[in-house]
Amino acid sequence: MNYGLPNPTPWFLLALAMSSQGALCAQPPDAEQRPMKEMYQDFRGGKAFRAEFRLGGAADANMVTKVEPGGLRITLPAARPRHFPIEVCAKFSLFGDFDVTGTYELLSAAKPAKGYGVGVALIVANNDKRDKFVKVGRLMRPEIGSVYFSEFWTRKPPEAYQFGSQPTEVRAGQL
φ, ψ for residue 61 (rounded to 5)? Predict the structure, then answer.
């Protein structure tokens, strides 16, 4: 997300790793389908998206992203028509026990004047409507500055919302 940044800001490189004890597949596995045990998407070295992933989010996603030797660079200008996030989306569902890890490096991120903040987040939701939603991220928030941030909600019974943050100046890591 990019809200209120004063200049065009190249801000992070991304690698994505996913592993599972259960399954990583497009639908629940049947008796004959063997679930994938591990998947790894690394953009470093100019590697393109695996077939299992796609670029999503804002309409300008293709214009503000570039796969380069250091990883997937996302450069968001301060003035955008709509401040929708740029997303790396999986084309499959997760079932059973699973681990998802996103590796990032913040190259630059100025403290925004307003909005939700700027940064990188790993999100898991049960559907496109996000009836059940969890997010962990490394953000620069307008009101509290540089933090790790977590958020959880459910919309269908019972409705719940929880969030928290922890100050940090760490510029690279894993979510």
Answer: -55, -45
